[in-house]
Amino acid sequence: MKIRPLFNMGLICLILVAAAGMGACGTGRGNPGTDSDSDSGSESGSDSGSDLDSDSDSDSDSDSDSDSDSDSDSDADANSTPPNNTDSDSAQTDARDTVPADSETGDTGTQGIADTTDTNADTITDAPRDTHDSDSARDSGYPDSDTLDTHTELSSDDDTELNDTAPGVDEIIEAMMLANSYFMRKWPNPGADIVTDKVRPSNLWTRAVYYEGLMALHRISPQPEYLDYALDWADSNNWNVAYQNPSSRDADHQCCGQTYLDLLEFSPQRAFIDNITACIDNVVASTVSDDWWWIDAIQMAMPIYARLGVLNNDTAYFDKMDALYTHTRNIEGGGLFNETDGLWWRDADFVPPHTTPNGEHEYWARGNGWVYAALTRVLDVLPGDAPQREGYVADFLVMSDALLKVRRSDGFWNVSLHDAGDFGGRELTGTALFVYGMAFGVRTGLLDAAVYRPIVMTSWNALVQGCLHDDGFLGYVQGTGKQPSDGQPVTYSSVPNFEDYGLGCFLLAGSETARLIAAQK
Q1: In which band, very low, low, confident or very high, does the pLDDT at 161 lie, cut at 50, 70 and 90?
Q2: Residues contacting residue 85 through CB under 8 Å, at least 6 positions apart
Q3: 427 forms bridges with which residues in the sheet?
Q4: What is the dihedral of CA 420, 421, 426, 432, to 10 degrees?
Q5: Which residues contact 152 (CB under 8 A, 6 or more apart)?
Q6: How many CA atoms lie within 13 A of 73 on its CB side?
Q7: Over the stretch 413-425, which tens digit does the pLDDT of each residue have?
Q8: DSSP-derived 3-state class of residue 87
């Protein structure tokens, strides 16, 4: 597959202005229903100030993917196992080019960015709950990734030269396309099961987060192959929740619905969202609101409620979303949001008296990133007059200030936000999610541009300079789990057990940074 040259200035401007209605790259598709093994293959709502337009992973990162099959991947990534424990669904298979048996491998052919010359483009996501038992700390059985890469490991955590110069939009898109091409070569069949220590469906949370990022990239640089890749993925899963369980209340299983809603913009057939709507309606109709007992779940599911509420003009979705969020924030484990520190404990296992070995509160970067991204995605579509909006904006601002205070000098955030001595070090997923939210905040006027815009630019530049390999592989991605110690070691050349969600985070960060730069031209 060859990626087309970047679009000219006029088209990109059109994209940025008409985000919600764009459908140039997609036409109607047939009814969903292809076999799950098949290899075939809007944002509705108000956009508070934007023109276009997250892990419970007991084993995952949400990294959240709690499966009914006790395979949940919530970024609980490594879901400590609160109430029940399921085996994380975080999925992604391989160590660069070496893939476990039965796993779908990518094409070894070259798929770089073609003719990406500057075209002045920069002018322009009442059943008992499963517990998420993360796979992240388990031995993946992969070969030592350090032997697979010829790049030189960065000599120290602080040697990235800070650069707050805003890159061109075309430069950002080029980096995103390079990383995405690497992934699509490795996974030519979007419907193929994910095989690591076991077989998991291709629409579990880890892969769903990737598609959130892919759709964000498609909005600012439409490519027919991106849309086809996403539609084939949805078709192969019958547009259903993970594990084909429409009654699942697990946020990890519901996360794929965010992309189904995205695809509705480009291929407007309401039947595509029937299954995810029925799944969420089941939760809305119930009186139980304790489903999100780990914070990754907030990103996995919360934006779906906001978007269905807008799409159906039904505030019942907003009310249930708020009840679920409020339970996680104020009730679960005594309340998982520490208003004093402005950060979230991953689940009840980390609420004091628990501390890191150095006596600090243990705040996991990616877990906080999931919440920050969820607030971003909800605020992007929630109507300005919705009564819940004020509280979400307040939490977003408090988190933004707290994150500013714990940022590293090299533009990254530590895996452990308050304790650099407890598996600290630069990490892509948390950093990318923070960049995503801050870029959105600046673009929509929620955050002070004088303070946060330089942060966005230096951190995005650090991600590209410090993590993106020449072949598109992304380094410094923590594997699935639920805490700083999971998925270690995290290095420039280490390969996480699942590469998909890391790429999704990177694409979300890049897309929103590009939109910010374009909006300020």
Answers
A1: low
A2: 58, 70, 79, 130, 131, 132, 133
A3: 413
A4: -50
A5: none
A6: 36
A7: 999 999 999 998 9
A8: strand
